[in-house]
Structures are given as C-alpha cells and as structure tokens.
Amino acid sequence: MSALLTTLTLAALAAAPSSAPGAAPVTAESVTWTLRNLQPTGQAVITPGAALTRPTLRLTGSGAALTVSGSTGCSPLTGQGAVKGQALVLRGVQGGSSERCTDAALSLREDYLRFLRTTTRLDVSGNTLTLTGGAGRLTFTRAGGPMTSSPTATPNSDLDGTWQTRVTPGPVGPERGQALLRVTFSGAKVTVAGLAGCNTVTGSGALVGQQVVFGTVASTRRLCPGTVGAAENRLLALLRAPLTIERQGAALVLRGQTGQLTLTRTPAPAAPSSALPDPAATYTLTRLNGQPPRPTLRPVTLSFKDGRLGGSDGCNSVGGAYTVQAGRVELTGGLVGTKMACTDQPGVDFQTLFDQRPTLSVQGGTLILKTAEDTWEFQAR
Length: 381
Known about the structure:
It comes from Deinococcus radiotolerans. The protein has 381 residues and is mainly β.
C-alpha cells in the first residue's frame, strides 16, 4: 500500500479561545501541511509514494465552526469540523466524484478519507503536525505560512467521568425510552456507548466550548420496528449533531435541536469482590429485585469460564467475552446468540443488563449482579 500513499496539505488549524481567566484568545492563521507518513493502528509506518498527486486539506474557522476543503489528490474534499485544545473532530468529510481517480489514486483517496473521518486529536510541535484517531496516525510537515501554537486550554474538569442516561429525545423534550447510554468525559475527549433502543452504539468526539460534538456514531444494524425504532432514529439523529451542555442541579443535560438527553453520574465503582464466579458452576436466576423471575421457556442461566460468559436468556443461548474491572462486569465485545423466536415466553434482556456494567459479588453459592435499578440473584447448580 506504500506506493499508493501520497502527500496531503492541511491549512488553518483554528482554536477556540482559552477558557482560563484572563487568557488571550488564540488566533488562527492559514498553515499548509504536507503528509510525511501514515501509520495504521497496530501497523508499521507507511511513507507516501512519489507517483501520485498530493492531496490537500484546509480547515478554516474556529471552535465548532470549522470548514473542511481541499483535495484527495484526484477529487475535491468537503466537510465540517470542530476543535478545542488538542481535540479535533471532522464531520461529513466527503471526497466528491472519483471519476478521474486511477486505481492507485482511488486507494489512496479512500485511506485518506478514512483516517480523516476518525481523527480525534491534533498535536503541533514546531513544523510537525500529527493527527491521530481510530484508523491510526497521520504526520505532516509544514509547507509554508505562519505557524499557530497548539492551544492547551482544557474544558471544565468537573465533567470528567462517566454519566448515564435512560431517556431518548422526544419532539419537545425527553421521553422515557429503552435507550441506556454511557457518556464519558476525559478532558476534551468525549465517548458514547450503550443501547440506543434495540441496537448498540459507539462514538467518539470532543468537548468544544459548551458543546459536545461527536465525529462518528456507529451502531449495529438490527431491525427495530414500531415506536422503538422511531425513538432510536431520533436518538441517533440527536447524537450526530452538536449538543449544548446545561447543568440542572446534579444532572447534566445535552440539548440539541430535536430533543435532549438528561445524564446522571454513574455510581462509584464497588470494591472488587473477594470472590469470583466458580468456572465449573452454572448459575441459575432465582430472584429479580427480591421476587421470583417471570416464567421463561428455559431456565435463565449464566456461566463464567476462561474470560467468556455464556448461558441462556430463557429463550436463546448467549455468549461473549468479559472482564471484571473494579468489581464490575464489562463486556469486551457484544453478546452473540441463537435466533429463536419465543413470543409467548421471551427471554430476559442480558444485553441491557451488561451494558450497565453491573457490579458482581459472590456469596457462597449465590452470584449477585446489581445495577442502579435492578438486583439479579443466581444460584450455583
């Protein structure tokens, strides 16, 4: 692929004014950058070949109002973006028509667009600019023009940590839905993950002033009929546009043009359990919130062995990789399972349970999974 790489130009990195009291605002000036190399995540550095026309990228504006333009090397480039400190998010990046692209140029064009679309961070040091994100790292050299120092202002640290919500956007305000999302702030970086209705979603973005801007929000593709599907579509549309942050007491409200999300901090992690599940045991659900569970076609069971959990949700067999961190069960991937339709006696919703990162404890032969709202008790058999 190294013969397919080329050089790209980037101009006008714009920074929002520093939030520190008395700090002078950082001004943006046009700077042209040329790609030195590209490094896909987990792979070796790739140096651009000399046979291709060098793509260009221009970012103009500041804060949440960046405009993307330039060239992929064989087609025009457009898009929008947002920058705050070292956080950079590019949205709606498009490469125009590829009619004039040779096979080699087309391959470079696709790699170039993929890297830009996953960018979450920029670093400027002297004449070197580095963009990093989910696809990997792009390193540039300044081609000319004045240099703007990388701003270091960071958002309010009191947002740092994980917040959760169970509401989906309604036409004029929040409405109770099946969504269960976790939004995590770490300085200028923001991530979202969880259940959007019947699909799981993940996304990353940045805190820009008093707005949260997600660059990409991906979801699984399970069909969601009826009101659940409609609510999920509203939620996804909300996440893909800038959201204004508002404080309401202990809650955090993310407000968009089509609705809002009300977030509360997740409970502090419980102390690690002194006991872990017996890998030789099968745990059967006996009580949910102190009451016998509703009838299911099969017993609801869980087993924990060699980093994988498995069992039955009462209808289908399920399984997935997991870890226990600070006393909480965390899936390291989604749950997979069989596809039986048990309409009369449907299974329990394990996906929602584990999306909430339940605390885990073992007391004798009883395994307890506890969320903010529910307590699940399983007995070893």
